DNA sequence: TAATGTTTGCAATCGAGTTGCGCTAATACC
DNA sequence: GGTATTAGCGCAACTCGATTGCAAACATTA
């Protein structure tokens, strides 16, 4: 397990107080977090600072973002060695009851045969339903 | 090809002027449409009326919605016989250049093995890149 | 026809995301 | 060390898609 400092160093992102606490929070969660989730967890850090931190992290592939259809973009730390290329992508599961988003990292996305001359760059795969806790 | 009236009858949605023009517009497009797209196309129909019409259509499975990550939900008419169940789902392609969303209806979603006790209800699969027109 | 329910248009509101700006901290340069 | 330059931060304001309250118009039923 890498520390926040190690991750930032590897991804060539300068370390700051805000970046450390945001990344620490993301590492501590097992579910992808929205801007609001992070804002609530870090009471003394401004929303726009968190927002810009997330942008920086995403540009430098520290984290990846997920559009789960909840209306809020969620963020999760990339796995070690991830370059956010199609081959690094995985499915996400969004629980429609508890609104949590799970990274299904063990479920790689199969090869997708696109129509002629289409070029694949990215993918956002979200399956929705009930998670184990809500499926009672 | 079914007419608007036939579709609404089958899906048990009462026909009205707004519903007819919205559905006609959606049927005439080959790309999924956003609320704004529809609003622009139907100059004399109020946005909130279109919005509520889309909600009604979605509830009654006349259309399905797609979150393509553009920030605007897009809508497309369901194929005949579609019940918006997992087996009816398909991938969508979002062109990051022209912002158009394509339904890849010929590309069914493979069976997804979820973790223990997770229940699949829906899926929102969007691959992103360049469409044939923009991939030059 | 009267009563009731549904649909529509307008205006206002909500909320996630984003930006401008001034201050402060860090870094580079002399 | 001292000063100039750059980067990061916090606050407040703003954007824009989505949503709602309300009253008028329309449709349905008794």
TrEMBL record, chains A, B:
Binds 1 zinc ion per subunit. Keywords: DNA-binding, Metal-binding, Repressor, Transcription, Transcription regulation, Zinc. Zn(2+) binds at residues 95, 98, 131, 134. InterPro entries: FUR, Fur_C, WH-like_DNA-bd_sf, WH_DNA-bd_sf. It comes from the Bacteria. GO terms for molecular function: DNA-binding transcription factor activity; transcription cis-regulatory region binding; zinc ion binding. GO terms for biological process: negative regulation of DNA-templated transcription; regulation of secondary metabolite biosynthetic process. Belongs to the Fur family. This is Transcriptional repressor. It comes from Brumimicrobium oceani. The lineage of its organism: Bacteria, Pseudomonadati, Bacteroidota, Flavobacteriia, Flavobacteriales.
